[in-house]
């Protein structure tokens, strides 16, 4: 039987966090003969891990030939924000069950995307299931070392400046390495209603009245839900003044929450004044997208311990937790 031409000119498009469309060119004479495609996909960082694999033996996806382009989804657990390499081979299944195969195409590299809004909505729904009842609070607070606040006073005009979010949390979060903000906490101790005296981030604490950062002129977005191989879970929320750069970034990428009615963090008018509540059973990490003036709050030393084990700096999400993972890439 006549040999098959080698596929070439691979094109990858419509890339999401867990799927992509692929097409390639082959000789017209092969179009009606080809019965199957072999698609070899590898994580780029592991491209040498299969160096002993015989390239003529398909070890990846075998798909019946369909008109191109074809969508690849669900055949692998593709991870978000991950570089992959892909090569293709065409084949004709013969009467004896063996395959006549083409040569392998060139290898093309691509990177999967972030979680889309619908994926974040799934994470949000999972977080809502364990958020617990709402507790009142009155201040946002940020713990750090004394030198951090001294630097803000001396070199940043007495302002806490937004910085780039690290890669903690879900690997597919569109905020990681993209959104600038200042991290705050708001969780309180159940028995006192006050912020805890312990912190993983430093002995100095800046406290600011909640209404300074969270009010009807602020948009609230859900950004992530994760754990670090622990029983307790974290939710990341974004507070962005309406119309700000941070607000515009979040608008297209993150689910918008109703500030007066959601399961995580609320601001509502009661008796003519603003009342604030947070979810009891989640550790909330709040990203405020604009600079914060230290003169709007108070700075002091806390009396508790520095619990480094609770730090979430560049924390990796537990990919096996059924509570906070969704069925797309981790």
From TrEMBL:
<dbReference type="Pfam" id="PF19281">
    <property type="entry name" value="PHYHIP_C"/>
</dbReference>
<dbReference type="GO" id="GO:1990782">
    <property type="term" value="F:protein tyrosine kinase binding"/>
</dbReference>
<dbReference type="InterPro" id="IPR036116">
    <property type="entry name" value="FN3_sf"/>
</dbReference>
<dbReference type="GO" id="GO:0008104">
    <property type="term" value="P:intracellular protein localization"/>
</dbReference>
<keyword id="KW-0325">Glycoprotein</keyword>
<protein>
    <recommendedName>
        <fullName>Phytanoyl-CoA hydroxylase-interacting protein</fullName>
    </recommendedName>
</protein>
<feature type="domain" description="Fibronectin type-III">
    <location>
        <begin position="6"/>
        <end position="115"/>
    </location>
</feature>
<dbReference type="InterPro" id="IPR042868">
    <property type="entry name" value="PHYHIP/PHYHIPL"/>
</dbReference>
<comment type="similarity">
    <text>Belongs to the PHYHIP family.</text>
</comment>
<comment type="function">
    <text>Its interaction with PHYH suggests a role in the development of the central system.</text>
</comment>
<dbReference type="GO" id="GO:0005737">
    <property type="term" value="C:cytoplasm"/>
</dbReference>
<comment type="subunit">
    <text>Interacts with PHYH and ADGRB1.</text>
</comment>
<dbReference type="InterPro" id="IPR045545">
    <property type="entry name" value="PHYIP/PHIPL_C"/>
</dbReference>
<dbReference type="InterPro" id="IPR013783">
    <property type="entry name" value="Ig-like_fold"/>
</dbReference>
<dbReference type="InterPro" id="IPR003961">
    <property type="entry name" value="FN3_dom"/>
</dbReference>
């Amino acid at each position: 039987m006549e040999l098959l031409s080698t596929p070439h000119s691979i094109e990858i498009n419509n890339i999401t966090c867990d799927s992509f469309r692929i097409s390639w060119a082959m000789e017209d004479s092969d179009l009606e003969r080809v019965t199957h495609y072999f698609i070899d996909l590898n994580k780029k960082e592991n491209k040498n891990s299969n160096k002993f694999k015989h390239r003529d033996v398909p070890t990846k996806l075998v798909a019946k030939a369909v008109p191109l382009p074809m969508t690849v989804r669900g055949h692998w657990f593709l991870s978000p924000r991950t570089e992959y390499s892909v090569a293709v081979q065409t084949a004709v299944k013969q009467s004896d069950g063996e395959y006549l195969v083409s040569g392998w195409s060139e290898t093309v590299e691509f990177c999967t995307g972030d979680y889309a809004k619908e994926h974040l909505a799934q994470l949000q729904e999972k977080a809502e299931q364990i958020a617990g009842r709402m507790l009142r609070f009155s201040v946002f607070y940020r713990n750090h070392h004394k030198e951090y606040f001294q630097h803000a006073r001396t070199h940043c005009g007495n302002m806490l400046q937004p910085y780039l979010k690290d890669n903690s949390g879900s690997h597919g979060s569109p905020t990681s390495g993209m959104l600038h903000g200042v991290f705050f906490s708001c969780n309180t101790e159940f028995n006192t209603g006050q912020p805890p005296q312990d912190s993983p981030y430093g002995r100095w604490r800046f406290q600011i009245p909640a209404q300074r950062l969270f009010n009807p002129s602020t948009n609230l977005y859900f950004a992530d839900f994760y754990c670090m191989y622990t029983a307790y879970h974290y939710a990341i929320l974004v507070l962005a003044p309406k119309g700000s750069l941070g607000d515009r970034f979040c608008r297209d990428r993150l689910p918008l929450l109703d500030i007066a009615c959601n399961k995580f963090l609320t601001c509502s008018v009661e008796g003519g004044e603003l009342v604030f509540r947070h979810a009891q059973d989640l550790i909330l990490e709040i990203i405020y997208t604009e600079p914060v003036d230290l003169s709007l709050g108070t700075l002091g030393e806390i009396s508790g311990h520095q619990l480094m084990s609770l730090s979430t700096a560049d924390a990796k999400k537990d990919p096996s937790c059924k509570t906070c993972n969704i069925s797309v890439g981790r």
